[in-house]
Amino acid sequence: MTIFVSIVACLAILTGITSCSSSGVNVLKPQERLRVATTTSLYDTGLWALLEPRFEEKYGVQLDILYAGTGIAIQYGKDGDVDALAVHDKARELQFIADGYALKRVPFAYNYFVIVGPASDPAGIKGLTPEQAFKKLADSKTSQFVSRGDSSGTHAKEQAIWKAAGFNYADVQKSGSWYVEGGGGMGPTLVMAGQKNAYTLADIGTFLAYKGETGLVSLVDQGSILLNVYSALAVNPAKITTVKAEMTQNLVDFLVSPEIQKLIGEYGVKDYGRALFTPCAGNEPTS
Asked: Which of 121, 116, 85, 122 is nearest to 101 (CA)?
């Protein structure tokens, strides 16, 4: 009887081994990944959440999106941490190309910056030009202004407006407690401005996306200096040898394709009554 039980047990074990062997799990091949550094406004508005799965499905690749201010995003490109950039600071983009880190910039969308603040507008800047509004805020020093303060494209645009208004930016930074450097992305900067009943500069897309949370309103929205163009740059594989050149070019082509340009032009209309971005493949605006 003992011998019989042992034989049955051994047969059961062998059957189990055979069964496990025949129903094992296949080894998965690692999926190709593409690293993209993007400005916070494209991320905070949710645009990448719309585009990312479409690109991944079409090309069978996993996108790793790193969102940061344009200055940090460009540094990621220089350090070889990403394969492509989607940013909005033309001067630094052109310098990135001049330094050999990319061959060209490909504009794919634009919107405009706006100066936003509390509905009561205590500084009285509504309807002024951007330069006049900044001058009034700096001269009065009675209302707080929250700056990105993070070397982002928005921060660069703010500095350009200060310069156009006749100010040395270093002097503005030291001019008192009215000027607050937040050091965060566009969304958190808007939230901070709302909490402080303060003014800030924001791209219209992120402002609309966060308007319900901040209670801020658009006060200054006219002036060519407020133009905000987003470009894609493929990192140059001759400069950074780890770049996945073919897949990176696929991403650039994807962003300017008719299908995706149409999506960009429709994004936000259902929720905000207007698009958060305007597609501009092959037709970069100048004002």
From this structure: 85
In a 3-state reduction of DSSP, which class is residue 156? helix
Does 220 lie in the same domain as 128? yes
pLDDT in tens, 32-64: 999 999 999 999 999 999 999 999 999 999 999
Q: How many CA atoms lie within 13 A of 268 on its CB side?
A: 24
Looking at 83-128, list the stretches that DSSP marks H as alpha helix, in order from N- to C-terminal side: 90-98
Q: Which domain holds residue 135?
A: 112-226
CB under 8 Å to 14, separation ≥6 — which residues?
none
* Closest C-alpha among 190, 101, 205 to residue 146: 190
- Residue 91, Cβ density class (10 Å: 0-12 exposed, 13-18 middle, ≥19 buried): exposed
What tokens appear for 17 in the block? 């081994």
When divided into structural domains, the chain yields a total of 2
Count CA atoms within 13 Å of residue 229 on its CB side. 22
**Phi, psi angle pair for 201, to nearest 5°:** -105, 130
Round to whole Å and give the CA distance between 215 and 134. 21
- Is residue 126 within 8 Å of 217, Cβ to Cβ? no
Query: DSSP label at 80?
Result: T
Locus of tokens 């936003």: 116
Here the CATH number for the domain that contains residue 254 is: 3.40.190.10
Q: What is the pTM of this model?
A: 0.87
3-state secondary structure 90-142: HHHHHHHHHCCCECCCEEEEEEEEEEEECCCCCCCCCCCCHHHHHHHHHHHCC
